[in-house]
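In the lab's daily routine, each protein ends up as an entry in a very long ledger. A line of letters takes care of the sequence, but it says nothing directly about the fold. The fold becomes a row of whole numbers, each drawn from a learned catalogue of backbone shapes. The protein below has been through that process, and both of its lines are reproduced in full:
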Amino acid sequence: MGGFSPDGDMTDFTLKFDTTSFRQLDEFALLACQEYNLGNRGDWFGNFRGGLHGFYARLHGVAVHYRIVHAWLPNLRSPTETEYHLASIFFNMDSATECLTFALNALGYAAIQGSFRDVSNAQALRYLSPKDILGNPVANPPTEPLAGYAVVFPNMQSLWQNKRTFLDLIVGQHDVSKHRETIFTGGRARQDPPMGFYESLDIPDDAVIRSQFWPMAEIILKNDPKLPKIARTPQPLQEHTHLETVAAEFVDFIRDTGSEAFSDARSTITIPEKSFRQTS
């Protein structure tokens, strides 16, 4: 049973998030919170960094569950396991945007106190969400974004508003998998086991038995998952929503968000001293 390592087969299913700009934003925020710059009123920097590190953890969760559901592993696979990873991926995607909003709100609060949620007020933080950036046009009555984002993070806000449909997809998949039912509807299994995979597990040359070990190659999601079942119609092949496409778009979205947020902050937040003071 020994001898097989799953580490060699995951190159095509490894999500690599570029967080370079977020780390630059963190350095900028640390400089901004110094007493000779904006100071740290309400411990806004603690809120910023806590949200940012929560964001990093959620990206890690997306990558781990995405990798495992596609990986050749020495154990039986099932639709139940696939659904578990799928639900976990969308929880982490949705939560990543929530945590990042928490972090950006804190930095915005440091720059323009009255135009963001008060980081020292529990009631204010209770209502913090990505809708602060996006607004909510379908609410009754519709709500506008918080005014501060157009001032402090204008390009990042435009990016998110242009990606509203994509972000709504993530929220919808998470909501349904969390509160209602499964979101996994089918897909395609991998047929490229690493050399020696079946032999190392003493699995006979029997397609029925071997199929129980196949990981996923392509996962189909429910379109419009919040629709009642009676309102659903079969989806043409060209209209299928695939996890792999969503994941690739999410990687790009995270990279672009970091780039725009850091660029915006440097351009819009004025600090008296542009470098850290040397300590004696």
Observations:
- The chain has a mean pLDDT of 92.
